[in-house]
Design a protein that fits this description.
The chain is α/β, with parallel strands linked by helices. 41% of the residues lie in helices and 16% in strands. It has 11 helices and 12 strands. It has helices spanning 3-29, 63-72, 93-105, 123-135, 137-140, 162-177, 196-207, 228-239, 261-271, 302-309, 314-317; strands at residues 33-35, 38-40, 50-54, 77-82, 109-114, 147-150, 184-187, 214-220, 245-250, 253-254, 257-258, 274-277. The strands form 3 sheets. It has an 8-stranded parallel beta barrel, surrounded by 6 helices. Helix 6 links the parallel strand 6 and strand 7. Helix 8 (228-239) runs parallel beside helix 9 (261-271). The longest helix has 27 residues, at 3-29. The radius of gyration is 19 Å and the shape is globular.
């Protein structure tokens, strides 16, 4: 190939790359997008997620009951468990479209997560979650103003930062290359309970996103949410890196100890950080106490009453 033609081809490649990037940037700016420590909505106003998790993939038959009941709590956001088929029945494109139709009807922002990679230390499992989102791209494109993609629930069970950061730095550009411009959420390492991974390497993960539209999630159970000092240290460590954070899951207790839910709710309100309580109903294996409701449409449990009607709860914080 002669030099002039080579220069022409090179220029064309640059133009195409810039076009893809600018198209993605325009899509991101027309939907949710991250600016420093804040998540902004399509109008550029700060958006603080407050809501619950719902194990949809395990209870597909209950969608039409669960979503309106969740909306009735005053939640503005619901985090939806999905499966890519690796561990549970796959939520295919038609099922995903059904979920998004229901949440849109009831005005809920939807955080979507693939649950199959939970606790895995294998980057291949993260790649499979990314493959799922790419497969679902046709359903997802155009929903940037109401859908946020939580790439993989609690991928990376180890309490260390290096592999976690390096794998996500490979995963995020793949999603962007597929045309997905949504705000992305990356869970902390250590089953979501090792915020030091974000403090130490979150900036590297963020830098890997061409659209700079990635935020981070801490799951606050007995380790990351044990007391007020721990809660504040974990949140402040992320904000100090000029990164946005949400408490993607939390409970009032867990296998290995108590959780200071009052501190979580109070400090997130103080710092204007979002939270999503775990989980609407259907917990098993000894953590049934984490059910917020007794079934898809209620009534609320004592944990649910705390989250909905307690201090800084869903019905209260809306009126402050």
């Amino acid at each position: 190939m002669n030099r002039k033609r080579l220069q022409w081809v090179g220029a064309l490649v640059v133009v195409l790359v810039l076009f893809v990037y600018s198209s993605g940037l325009a899509s991101a700016q027309s939907g949710f997008h991250v600016k420093g420590t804040e998540l902004l909505d399509k109008n550029g106003d700060p958006y603080v997620m407050r809501g619950v998790n719902h194990g949809h993939s395990w209870f597909k038959q209950d969608l039409e009951e669960a979503i309106p009941a969740i909306a009735e709590t005053g939640a503005n956001t619901v985090r939806i468990v999905l499966s890519n088929g690796q561990q549970w029945e796959k939520d295919d494109a038609s099922e995903l479209a059904r979920v998004l139709a229901a949440t849109e009807t009831y005005g809920l922002t939807t955080v979507l997560e693939v649950h199959d990679a939970t606790g895995s230390d294998n980057p291949d499992d993260l790649d499979k979650a990314v493959d799922y989102w790419i497969e679902m791209a046709d359903v997802l494109k155009g929903t940037e103003d109401r859908v946020i993609i939580n790439i993989a629930n609690e991928w990376y069970g180890a309490w260390r930062s290096d592999v976690w950061a390096e794998a996500y730095a490979q995963a995020i550009p793949r999603l962007r290359s597929a045309g997905l411009a949504h705000t992305l959420i990356v869970d902390a390492a250590g089953w979501g309970q090792y915020p030091a991974s974000i403090h130490e390497r979150g900036a590297d993960v963020f830098a890997s996103d061409p659209l700079k539209n990635t935020m981070f999630s801490i799951h606050m159970y007995e380790y990351a949410g044990a007391d007020r000092a721990t809660v504040s240290e974990n949140i402040d460590g992320v904000l100090a890196e000029n990164l946005a954070v949400v408490i993607g899951e939390f409970g009032h207790r867990h296998h290995d100890g108590d959780v200071d839910e009052d501190a979580i709710l109070a400090y997130t309100a103080e710092r204007q950080v979002g939270w999503l309580a775990w989980s609407w109903y259907g917990n098993s294996g000894g953590v049934e106490y984490l059910d917020l409701a007794e079934g898809p449409s209620g009534p609320l449990t004592s944990w649910g009453e705390r989250i909905v009607y307690g201090e800084m709860g869903l019905k209260v914080i809306d009126h402050l």
